[in-house]
Amino acid sequence: MSEDRFPYNLPSHEATVRLINDTYPRANMLPKLTRFETPTSVPIEGEPGRSHIAVTNLRTGKRNEYYYRRLDIGVTFTDGMEIYVDGPITPRSIVEEINRAYEMNFGPDDLLMSNNQLVPLGSGVVYQMRAYARSLVWYGDVVVVANPSVMPTNVRLLENGTARLLEEGTYRLLE
To answer: Which residues are within 8 A (CB) of 94 and not within 5 positions of it... i.e. 6 or more apart?
Structure first.
């Protein structure tokens, strides 16, 4: 991960308020008193993540427009990522493991968070994680190598030999 340590542990809404307040110190926005419209990308040479957004102050009803720079997910993780996922590998489980392992706070407004299984249980996948265009903080994409975690030896097995899983996708263990 790059040395630029923006407060990645903030949810997108709060992080966007922080980005705009850093860019426009006189904006003095508060996270709970702002409503954002969908940002639009307006890159110029040398600033690929430059975005335009309209912000409504819920206290005064005043609407302002700002330009700020969203963060490139590919630059944040310059070396890519390799993670180990418990249970089935889905876009949601990949994002949740990245949030846990890298102390990030990606949400459903930033990245795909579906529960569709990408590969059979026990297989790994090279997954291209792409930020939504509507993401307030992120743009771009990054390659994630998602490997299955090592299956414990005391896992309950089904009749066909595959591991039995609990509803949340973790292994069901022998008592």
So the answer is: 83, 85, 127, 129, 144, 146
